[in-house]
Amino acid sequence: MAPKEYRHNHYVPEWYQKRFLPKDGGEAKFYYLDLKPEIVTAPNGTHYKRKDILRWGADSCFNIENLYTTKFGNFESTEIEERFFGKIDTEGHKAVEYFCNFQHPDVDPESFHSLLLYMSTQKLRTPKGLKYLSLKTASRDKNELLLMLQKLQNVFCALWTECVWQLADCKDTNTKLILSDHPVTVYNKGCFPQSALARKFGDPEIWLNGTHTYFPLSEERVLILTNLSWVRCPYGNSMKVRPNPKLFRGAMFNFTSIQTHRDLTELEVLQINYITKMRAERYIAARQKEWLYPEKKAAPSLWPNLGDSYLLMPDPRSVTYSTTTVVGYENGRADTMDEYGRRPWQKGYSGKGSDKKDWNSFLAFQGEYARRFGPKRRGRSFEFNRISNEEDSVDYHAYHLSLEGRFTKR
After folding, report:
1. Would you kindly state where each structural domain of the chain is located, as residue ranges?
2. CB contact set of 181 (below 8 Å; sequence gap of 6+)
3. Which of 303-325 are b and which e, b meaning 16 or more Cβ less than 10 Å from the residue's Cβ?
4. What is the arithmetic mean of pLDDT over 375-404?
5. Is the full-model pTM beyond 0.70?
6. What is the largest CA-CA distance in the chain?
7. Which are the contacts of 67, defined by CB distance < 8 A and separation ≥ 6?
8. d(CA 266, CA 171)
């Protein structure tokens, strides 16, 4: 008989949940909101709806008995929980802690790879993620589905590697980030959660141009990943496929390009929590009850407005425009690829020359961003062996005026 401890399967690990609970000795319990409370029948035949708000600790939240237990005849196995998730969670825990405290000029490739693998697996292991995986793989039963989960554990890693990374903080806001049953969350302004498109296909894919992926590392810091193609031109169709969407391939990452020093406002935290709630499958949790209802203060009139306000967008003024990366090895061999992971012999390789339209749209966006938010940057990367300037050193507003009219949103 498999050990009972490995049958109580948390699809959002307890160690991760505890990052959203008080560390000062306060009550270590969530306000746990059921967005779809069940209708149950009492012994006397009376029907009633279960409570939607529960007061539970991390051991009771976001779990399903035997979610990862496999069965072969009369034999049951909990090895997926014990061995597969055990290692990923152990390394992922360290990586989440590292990026939660990340500051330039830190470089830790091991934490980078561990975080990517953890996030990719976390996106698949939830009830919502398993539904998605089942549709994509046409798995015939639970055993086959869990086997596919292990095979495809790094499915999102290459594309996330090529995103622009941003670490945003809310240390000074009254409201903090909430936790959901699908914590690796996506937002695309072209795919409202209640739309026919979303109901049919679920979350927008990460390889669509305008899809942002975000992952709260704690209640005060969130990692936001944005496709480079969208940062260069956020004026097109957000539902169009990004360049080179191939999943299982090599990709290069530059630690110096990570944007830090983004301080979220109270309204921005509420808006992110609103997206989190809208994208949850059934449960969200927070240590303050009022945080569970961001729509009371921040519900937009239209879903696209969140994208049009550049809520999740990194500061384009801190993004370097480059088309080629060359890596040399001790044995004299070198690898070359462009910003979208294409090699020199592949179709679309951009290292042979820049795309003038792409370049102009990037400059236009830098100018628009400066005009909208002012000269103080909302994200700073590590440039020329130092953190980039807090304020603009060039007149991006002039860029915008010179290019105004060439690009329109649609």
Report:
1. 81-313, 324-403
2. 11, 12, 62, 126, 127, 128, 280, 281, 282, 283, 284
3. bbebbeebbbbbbbbbbeeebeb
4. 79
5. yes
6. 79
7. 9, 11, 127
8. 10
